[in-house]
Structure formats: C-alpha cells, structure tokens
C-alpha cells in the first residue's frame, strides 16, 4: 500500500471511491438519491481536480498496485486548526489498515507543518468512524449541523492535539 499526495490523474477514481462509500457515512434513513445529488454537486471528479489544485487543501490517495482505494483530504482554510474533511476507503479494504495509513499521512503533515490541533466532523450516528477517530486520540468537543441537500444531519466535532 502506497500513500501519496493525489495527482490529477487520480480525480476520477477518487470520485468513484466517494460514490462507493459516502452512503456508509450517512444515516440509514438518509435518501440515497439525495446522497447521489450531493456527490454530483460537491464531490465529482471535476471537484477533485479543483481540490488537488487548491493550495488550501491537501489530498492524499492510498494506492494498491497503483489503483486508488482510499483518500483523505485536509482543509487548511482555518490556519490555527485544519480540518480533516474526508477519509474514505473502499469497503473491500476496510480492516486492512488503509484508513490508518491515510490518517498517519495527515498527522505527519500536520506535525511537520506546525499545527497544534486537528479537527474533524463525523455523522453523530457513525459509530464505526467515531470509534476509529477516538482510538486515534480525537476527543468529542461539540455538535453541528450538516446540510445534505434538503436533509439536515447532526455531526459531531472532534479535535486532536498534535504534539
């Protein structure tokens, strides 16, 4: 497994990873059609092309035999506390350490860049993701709303000190 900063040639596959996994991060009652609309409006290959070019974002890709199988995105717009905005791994790679390796790349970047904290948002009902992040040292610090088209979801805000 190779973890590297994503290149433009990865954009189409990164969008496909989102299409295969986004629903896993949503409430079971969430409308799958609305999820597809949200992905098309915010997480298409064209969006990933822009994400990769944006100096306020860092996009990593996990490669298995040069094939993208996971991604992580850190948003640097808030200079004091960057946001881990995306961490998705294809379901057939769950439990194989891919998310851990992507997460390590994000933390290593945050450390070498001098950040003191890293934030993230996760759907409040996503027990698996919350357990993963808590095992990585994240602490729950609050709640916020996430609007996905016409649906309103409750997200949990987590923070991890970087030392």
Distance between the termini: 26 Å
Query: What do the pLDDT scores average to?
Result: 93
Shape: globular
- Main sheet makeup: 7 strands, mixed
- What is the second-level CATH architecture of one domain? 3-Layer(aba) Sandwich
The percentage helix is 25-40%
CATH superfamily of one domain: Gcn5-related N-acetyltransferase (GNAT)
Count of distinct strands: 7
This entry's quaternary arrangement is single chain
CATH class of one domain: Alpha Beta
* β-strand amount: 25-35%
Q: What's the arrangement of strands in the largest beta sheet?
A: 1-2-3-4-5-7-6
CATH topology type of one domain: Aminopeptidase
Low-pLDDT residue intervals, each spanning 5 or more residues: none
The class by helix and strand makeup works out as alpha+beta
How many helices? The count is 5
Order of helices and strands: EHHHEEEHEHEE
The radius of gyration computed from the alpha-carbon positions, rounded to a whole number of angstroms, is 15 Å
Task: Describe the overall structure.
The protein is α+β, with helices and mostly antiparallel strands and 163 residues long. The protein has a domain at 2-114: Gcn5-related N-acetyltransferase (GNAT) (Aminopeptidase, 3-Layer(aba) Sandwich), CATH 3.40.630. The chain is 34% helix and 34% strand. The protein is built from 5 helices and 7 strands; from the N terminus they run E-H-H-H-E-E-E-H-E-H-E-E. It has a 7-stranded mixed beta sheet, with helices on both faces. The longest helix has 15 residues, at 98-112. It is globular. The relative contact order is 0.17.
């Amino acid at each position: 497994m190779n973890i590297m900063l994503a290149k433009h040639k990865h954009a189409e596959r990164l969008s496909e990873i989102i299409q295969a996994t986004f629903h896993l991060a949503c409430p079971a009652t969430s409308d799958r059609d609305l999820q597809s609309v949200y992905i098309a409006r915010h997480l298409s290959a064209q969006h990933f092309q822009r994400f990769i070019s944006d100096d306020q974002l860092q996009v990593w890709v996990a490669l298995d035999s040069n094939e993208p199988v996971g991604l992580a995105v850190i948003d640097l717009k808030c200079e004091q506390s960057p946001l881990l905005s995306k961490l998705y791994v294809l379901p057939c790679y769950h439990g194989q350490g891919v998310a851990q390796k992507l997460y390590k790349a994000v933390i290593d970047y945050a450390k070498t860049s001098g950040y003191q904290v890293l934030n993230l948002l996760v759907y409040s009902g996503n027990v698996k993701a919350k357990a993963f992040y808590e095992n990585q040292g994240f602490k729950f610090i609050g709640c916020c709303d996430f609007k996905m088209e016409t649906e309103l979801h409750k997200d949990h805000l987590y923070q991890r000190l970087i030392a």
